[in-house]
Design goal:
By secondary structure, the chain is of the alpha/beta class. The chain contains nine helices and twelve strands. Strands 7-6-5-4-1-12-11-10 form an eight-stranded parallel β-sheet. Strands 2-3 form a two-stranded antiparallel sheet. Strand 5, helix 3 and strand 6 form a beta-alpha-beta unit. Helix 3 runs parallel beside helix 4 and helix 5 runs parallel beside helix 6. The longest helix has 14 residues. It starts with a strand and ends in an 8-residue tail after the last helix.
Amino acid sequence: MDPELIVMLTHNDLTVENAYQVFEECKDSKALYFGFKEQPLPIEEMQRIFARMKECGKRTVLEVVEYTEAEGLEGAKMAAVCGCDVLMGTCYHESIHRFCQQHKIDYMPFVGSIVGRPSILQGSIESMVEEAIRLKKMGVFGIDLLGYRYDANAEQLISEIVSKTNMAVCVAGSIDSYERLQFVKDIQPWAFTIGSAFFDQKFGSSIAEQIDLVCDFINAKKIHVA
């Protein structure tokens, strides 16, 4: 199966303030998965947007860019209150995993050492492969891989994680060109995210147009790229 596009209504790792309006403009696009980050919108607005996504038949994703157990668990609680299908991000903790299981949320924690916001990924490829395999044995749905945020050989990391773990991998962050899209298509992870690149018009003009162009590219339909 072709990788799923997860449309993130985010720019520079923060949810855009007009996320509801942006979703309304692209709700009829070809992407099934939509989501955003845990900051900076109030929880009531997050609930409103996720509820609207559900009304439109979308699968919903909250990505939490936090690294401590307490902050990660708080993010998981946000995902539950918002009725999200998938929690991406957080560093793995058993308490977060258990909470997600109890609330029927698919959990996809980060691997590697992550610093800053926007996030930078550090660590050896070997150690991240081992960590991903360990998380798979613990029963997580998959992993959130900040592949193109890696401070070394990003494409080697993505390729080895996908080929050696046989698990759901979401390549998240900085997919901002057709060259990178082609690589993702060739490697075949479960999913990938695009957020900032849509707002920076890297794939066209309107968000809805760009989503459909990316979906068509991934699904190998013939398109014209200017």
